Amino acid sequence: MPSVPSSPDLAHLLSHAERRVVRRLAAVLAEEGCTVEEWRVLSLVGDGQGHPMSEIADHALMPAPSLTKLVDRMVADNLVHRRPDPHDRRRVLLHLTARGEDLHARAAHRVQGDQARLLDATADGGALAHLLLRLTAAAGTPPTTPADSSPATADDVRRVPAQGTSG
Predict the structure, then answer these.
(1) How far apart are CA 37 and CA 22, in angstroms?
(2) Sign of the dihedral defined by the CA atoms of residues 116, 29, 70, 15, in that order
(3) Burial annotation 137-166 (CB, 10 A radius, 16+ → b, else e)
(4) C-alpha span between 70 and 38 (Å, rounded)
(5) DSSP letter, residue 5
(6) Is residue 74 pLDDT above 70, yes or no?
């Protein structure tokens, strides 16, 4: 097992944590014969609302062609089925079958239990999950440039040409 990273680089720390958490999730889901990718589809479609493929691809963190292949396998395994959207017949919505609902319920129970144990081990009262949600939202905004941020440092001032001069 690799050691805990010592780098203060946020992206590196998050990547390292993500790999370990996903590996752990995969082990939990394997007990139900389910993959992480299938779980991501089941966890969204499990709300019973029916979802278009574009929304599922975004939620499952998968490119559309890969998702289509996965959903085709899940249809063949009788876990999900496609239905035309009653409001827009050009769109197809994905729904769980009875077998998919059973798998979703069993897997959700296992995943929730393991994630509760994992979060309890951080002893932070749920603050980590809340902070990750906030970080995800903040990371979705464009980064600021040194000229946009304040206060400016002496190094920033030296890098930015003065008004009216060429640089």
Answers:
(1) 10
(2) positive
(3) eeeeeeeeeeeeeeeeeeeeeeeeeeeeee
(4) 7
(5) P
(6) yes
Distance between first and last Cα of the chain: 51
Residue 148 phi, psi dihedral angles, 5° rounding: -80, -25
- What token pair was written down for 17? 């944590």
Q: How far apart are CA 63 and CA 52, in angstroms?
A: 14
Q: What is the pLDDT of residue 158?
A: 39
Indicate the pTM of the whole model: 0.76
d(CA 146, CA 155): 10
Instruction: Give me the phi and psi of 85, to 5 degrees please.
Output: -70, 125
- Give the tokens for residue 150: 């304040």
pLDDT value, residue 3: 61
